[in-house]
Amino acid sequence: MRRCLDLVKGYQGAQLILATIPQQDKPTYALIGRADTLSVFQIESRAQMAMRPRLEPQTRYGLVIEVAIVSPL
């Protein structure tokens, strides 16, 4: 996470901490809803990608629920 937040700061100049990461970033969730998630940990499997267009999560909580449905353990 630290590396990711450092990259955001370097490319966009935004100083983020875990508590300030936007929870409803529409462009990000549009990509997720289209199952354009290759190489994204936890949501890259075929089962996850097949479920996502049906559920279309729009928030972090919605994505957590979708992951839990496909991978309950």
Roughly how many Å is the radius of gyration?
A: 13 Å
List SSEs in N-to-C order. Answer: HHHH
Can you give the helix content as a percent range?
A: 40-55%
Number of domains: 1
Q: Estimate the global geometry from the Cα principal axes.
A: elongated
Q: How does this structure look, described?
A:
This protein has 73 residues and is mainly α. The protein has one domain (22-73). The chain contains four helices and no strands. It is elongated.
Which helices and strands, and how do they pair?
Layout: H1 2-12, H2 26-33, H3 46-55, H4 60-70
Helix pairs in contact: 3-4
Compact summary:
This protein is an all-alpha fold.
